[in-house]
Amino acid sequence: MKQFKFGEKRLIKFDIEGKVYQRPYNETLIRTIEEIEKNLNNAMKKIEDTTNFNEMFAEVEKECKKGIDLILGQGKFDEIFGVRGYDAMEEADLLMYLIDEINAFQSEIAEERAKENKVVELSPEKKAQIEGAMKNAVSSEAGAIHELGIPRRTAEYR
Q1: What is the mean pLDDT of residues 136-149?
Q2: Within a domain: 19
Q3: Of 22, 59, 68, 120, which is the most exposed, with the fewest CB atoms less than 10 Å away?
Q4: Mean pLDDT value across residues 149-156
Q5: pLDDT at residue 146 above 70?
Q6: Is position 6 within any domain?
């Protein structure tokens, strides 16, 4: 008879300006991402009709603060931006970075499990298609904040 053993807890590491933040990869994190998507989607509906940039940026900053604190831990948004200065575009960039890193981590886990289970390797085209679908599923609403006219920066974070 085989024995079941729990694996080590998986930690996602986020390197932000040389400081490393860690977050356990678990059901709570997945639910957190769902909550962030819901919050961003609701914010988009709220600001669709406004032409006031101050209101738009305030709403973006509010949702980015919530999302960053939900992912990294309460107070981390202010820890990071309190020193750096608050900027809605940088805050959106950071939130996108966090979501991108979570997506990459999920892909790594899927690949590990596939190897452990001796699953046949997917073609590069099929793999890219699945990874794109996973990434879009998690970050589609998060990317919606950029529809406000806030361009996504091409910051290097890998």
Answers
A1: 55
A2: no
A3: 120
A4: 50
A5: no
A6: no
Sign of CA dihedral 66, 68, 69, 75: negative
Q: Is residue 18 part of a domain?
A: no
Residue 88 lies in a domain: yes
Number of domains comprising the chain = 1
Give 35-74 pLDDT, tens digit per residue: 998 888 888 888 887 778 888 888 888 999 999 999 999 9
- Which structural domain range is residue 83 located in? 28-148
Burial class from Cβ neighbours inside 10 Å (0-12, 13-18, 19+) for residue 92 reads buried
Q: At what angle do helices 124-143 and 27-47 cross, to 10 degrees?
A: 50
